[in-house]
Each structure stands twice: as structure tokens, then as C-alpha cells.
Amino acid sequence: xxxxxxxxxxxxxxxxxxxxxxxxxxxxxxxxxxxxxxxxxxxxxxxxxxxxxxxxxxxxxxxxxxxxxxxxxxxxxxxxxxxxxxxxxxxxxxxxxxxxxxxxxxxxxxxxxxxxxxxxxxxxxxxxxxxxxxxxxxxxxxxxxxxx
Length: 148
Description:
148 residues
């Protein structure tokens, strides 16, 4: 007999990520519906980030897979990321800013309400954490010969 984690009392959530503006936004509703049906208790959302070497790889993928949408996607990402493809600032980097980020967030909120999912999981606790006994293990690593 197969038992879902959620049925066994294990808190289960889903992260809908990455949301690619102008490409997969409409899938938010279907993903959350299926997650709820599969036993998810909460959901989170992250908008695509393109740090460092990831940006050119993504741009090439867009050109190959969705050439007609490439500029729209990249322009929306820039609008969400303050004119760049990546915004490393904490608090902004996962959700973005501006009208398109707000639109995605509102769509996500509507889908959450429709499926009765909260946006945060259970309160975390360290009450059951126990430090392992004994001493810290040590790695005995020697440099290769000739590199001392």
C-alpha cells in the first residue's frame, strides 16, 4: 500500500519555481491544483534569476526554444530586476519588483486561495535536535607530492 508523505503526517509543501515571466506564468494554477491534490499543505513561489554565467545559457535556450518570445521574456525579467537580468539583493532576488512581479504575485495569491493553500509552512522547531556525541571528525588530507 502506498502512503503519501502528507498522509503519514510529514509536512509537505511545493515550490513553484522558476516562474519565467511571459512564458510559464499561466501554469501556476495547474501546478498548485496538482500539488494540493497530491497532498501539499503550503506553497511558495520564485521568479527566475539569471546570475552570472546562467544568463547567456538561458538566453541561448530561449533563442532555440522560443525565439518569438525571447525579447519579451528578457524585457520582463529586466523590468522585474531593476533593468538587469539578475538582482542579488536579499528580499528582492526571489520575487522581484515592479508591475510584472506584482502581477505574478497576485496570480499566485489567487491560485493559493482557490486551492486553500497557505504561503508558508509549519513553524520550524529545534526541540528534537541533539548534538552528536564524541569529537568532531578530522579529515587527514595531505597535499600532493611536490606541492608543499
